[in-house]
Amino acid sequence: MNINQIKKWVSSGEDERLEFKLKANHPEKIIREMVAFANHQGGHLIVGVSDNRKIVGLQYPNEAHHQISTAIERYCRPLFDYTTTILPTHTTDRYLLIYEIRKSQNPPHFVEHPDVGRKAYFRLGESSIQASRELCSILRKSVKAKNTMIKYGDIERHLMQLLDNEKTVTVRSFANSANISLKKASETLVFMVMAGVLLIHPSDADDQFSMAPLSSVPLPKTYIKID
């Protein structure tokens, strides 16, 4: 990794695997982005770059790293894997602080902060959103993915009919339509995602669920019980 490579990244702008921060004086915000990367596909977070894609650098990168690493140790549960690089810029006495966050093998990861409580985050495009309970459950279950037995009864049939008409549903819209509890709606949707029947579309509002296209999504073996 060298400064020319970083310049190319910066010129392209932020995306689902790249985030810029100017300073480290709000480490509680930085660790949210890092947790989101760990819960998604991994990524790089670069400290010392402004919002308008200008490489400003840090004068004291070791102090900045100390602030961030302390926040990770104190507030992130479970801890995630990352590496740190301090890279000189072309400006005298200025450095970039670069974190490479790996895709986690033990999701979901949470930020447990006394001011905001316990929250998980997930990378969505250029932003990091709070992960829903359903997304956290899917992330957790995906680590130990196995054959899923679906009880294909009245509720599941209703869901399929609803999706045939509406194309997408939320936990609440499904619960209201099927006249079931939010808990039952949530559990049903999560299991259908794990079985490869549905896709989840994370959102900063309500997650959307849709049918998984058979042509593009490889389905795991699924055992379907017909009542």
What is this entry, summarized?
The chain has 227 residues and is α+β, with helices and mostly antiparallel strands.
Task: Give your account of this protein's structure.
With 227 residues, this protein is α+β, with helices and mostly antiparallel strands. The protein has 2 domains: 128 residues, Methyltransferase, Cobalt-precorrin-4 Transmethylase, Domain 2 (2-Layer Sandwich), CATH 3.30.950; 93 residues, Winged helix-like DNA-binding domain superfamily/Winged helix DNA-binding domain (Arc Repressor Mutant, subunit A), CATH 1.10.10.10. The strands form 4 sheets. A 4-stranded mixed beta sheet has the order 1-2-5-4, with helices on both faces.
- The amount of beta strand, in percent, is 25-35%
CATH class of the largest domain: Alpha Beta
The third-level CATH topology of the largest domain is Methyltransferase, Cobalt-precorrin-4 Transmethylase, Domain 2
- Low-confidence sequence ranges: 215-227
Please estimate the helix content.
25-40%
The counted number of beta strands is: 13
Based on secondary structure, the structural category is alpha+beta
Order of helix and strand elements from N to C terminus: HEHEHEEEEEEHEHEHHEEE
How many structural domains? 2
**Largest sheet entry:** 4 strands, mixed
Corresponding CATH superfamily of the largest domain: Schlafen, AAA domain
